[in-house]
Structures are given as C-alpha cells and as structure tokens.
Amino acid sequence: MTNPETIERTTVCLLDEAGVSFSVAFVPNRTPETPYPLIHWCATLTRGKASHTFAYIQGIGHLPAPLKPCDCPPRSATFVDAMKRRAVAAISTGMVGSRWMEALSTWHGPKPLVPPTASDVLYCLVSDASVLDYPTFEEWASDCGYGPDSRDGERIYRACIVNALKLRALFGDSMLEKMRECLQDL
User: Most buried of 34, 65, 126, 135 (most Cβ within 10 A)?
Assistant: First the structure.
C-alpha cells in the first residue's frame, strides 16, 4: 500500500498536469443539533474559466482529539455532553476551541479545522464517478446496496452522474483514469 503523503504528492502533480487548481472552504453547519454532526466543506476545481464546486462532508472523527474535555470519567453522561458541545461548536464555526495545555503553560486559542486534502476529496469524487461505468441505475443500485426502486438510491445516483460529468469535463477520460489509478490505494 502506498503511503498517503505519496498519494497526495502524486495527486497534486496530476492536478498540475491537467491544469486544474484545487481549493476547499469550510461551510458552517446550519443544523448542528442533528444526531450525527458532520463537517461540511466546499471543494472547488478550476481549469481556465471552467470552475466546478462539490460538497465534501466528513464525520466528526476528523476533529482533533481534545486533551481532556472535562474533569469527569470517560463515557459518563457529562463527558459525552462535553464532547458533543465541542463537536457542535467546531462544525458550526470551523474552529476547534481553546484549551489550557499544562505541559506548555500556554493558552491556545481557537484553531481552524484542518481542511481535507486534494487526494481526500478527489478520492471520493473519482470513486463516485465510477457511476459512469454502469449502463443503468438498476445495475449501479445493485452493486451499491440499493434496491432498484429506492428513491434515495436514485437521488444519489443522479447526484453522482452530475458530479461525474463535471469531473470528466475538467479532466477528460484519460486523466480521470490516471486519477482513479493514483487514488485506488488511499
């Protein structure tokens, strides 16, 4: 398996070769009190005057671990509440809260969340673009665990088609295949 740093360097080289720039921006979560808080990003790929944006979502497992969210035993209701408040604040603001670090005896103010890398985002987009390899929704649904009459499955299928066509317009088929090969080990 290739290490993630090598994959990221190769991805950036492929973007350069294709003349495509990559940027990502945090998008505040407007409904942070959901059962499963998520971190929202807007990724933009630009080539010349053509620019396409894509939603990219991470789970809260991508938040940095706190040193200690509260003076309470792990798995207690208080501990879980403290972790949830921390996650809700982070996904609403894009910042990880302040904390005192005793070892350094310094105050660390809020820090921005670490954005996803180009290889993280492109791995998902290129994987979703494999939808173009299926001649019908039913075949795609069968391979992806959806029923042939699933409305959610069809909504996801159509969104994947839209994104896949945007990617193909930016990269072309041969570069898209190079990206797929590069990112398969991620």
Answer: 126
Q: Which residues 6+ apart lie within 8 Å of 132 measured at CB?
A: 161, 164, 165, 168
Do 164 and 132 touch, CB atoms closer than 8 A?
A: yes
Give the pair of three-digit tokens for residue 25: 């921006």
Residues 97, 68: contact at Cβ < 8 Å?
no
**Euclidean distance between CA atoms 6 and 23, whole angstroms:** 19
Rounded-to-integer distance, Cα 165 and Cα 91, Å: 30
Residue 183 has pLDDT above 60, yes or no: yes
* CA separation for the pair 183, 177 (Å, rounded): 10
CA dihedral 43, 45, 46, 52 (to 10 degrees): -80
Average pLDDT over residues 154-180: 95
Sequence-distant (6+) residues with CB within 8 A of 113 are 26, 39, 62, 63, 90, 94, 95, 96
Domain ranges of the chain: 67-112
Whole-model pTM: value is: 0.84
CB atoms within 10 A of CB 61: 8
Convert the pLDDT of each residue in 129-160 to its tens digit. Answer: 999 999 999 999 999 999 999 999 999 999 99
Closest CA to 94 of 77, 76, 115: 115
Is residue 82 packed enough to be buried (19+ CB in 10 Å), middle (13-18) or exposed (0-12)? middle
